[in-house]
Design brief:
single chain, about 140 residues, alpha+beta, Thiol Ester Dehydrase, Chain A, five-stranded antiparallel β-sheet, about 40% strand, elongated
């Protein structure tokens, strides 16, 4: 991961994020992964491209490393990965700010879809350049 190619959002764990075990529920980490991806897309993609493309998740893989608790300040850091014709890899790390402990690591495969038809679509070269790395 090249730090210049990452995007991050800041989050605070709220009471509604906490489960019966007293820590952030696993599904909340997944929401944070998605929130980081959406924020990155909205920050980087030109508005005309955002209007022409929606994204759906094909696959999430997430490894939980350590718990977060209410009040923890979190950073969700995301970066792009490899792309195929209709699938784009995105990686995310969820980190507790105060001690920089890795709480979770995720890999998500996204598919671009046409907002009018709901069908998969190819993206422009501009978007491919912004949201993928070259296949080796």
């Amino acid at each position: 991961m090249n730090p210049e190619q990452t995007y991050q959002i800041n989050i605070k764990a709220t009471p509604s994020d906490i489960d019966e075990l007293g820590h952030v529920n696993n599904i909340v980490y997944l929401r944070w992964v998605q929130d980081a991806a959406v924020a990155h897309w909205q920050a980087l993609a030109p508005l005309k491209e955002q209007e022409k493309t929606l994204w759906v998740v094909l696959r999430h893989e997430i490894d939980y490393k350590a718990p977060a608790v209410e009040g923890d300040e979190i950073t969700a850091r995301t970066w792009i990965g490899r792309a195929k014709r209709l699938s784009f890899e995105r990686n995310t790390e969820i980190i507790r700010k105060k001690d920089q402990i890795l709480l979770a690591r995720a890999r998500t495969i996204w598919c671009p879809v046409n907002p009018e038809t709901g069908k998969p679509q190819r993206v422009s070269q501009e978007i491919r350049g912004l949201f993928s790395v070259e296949e080796v």
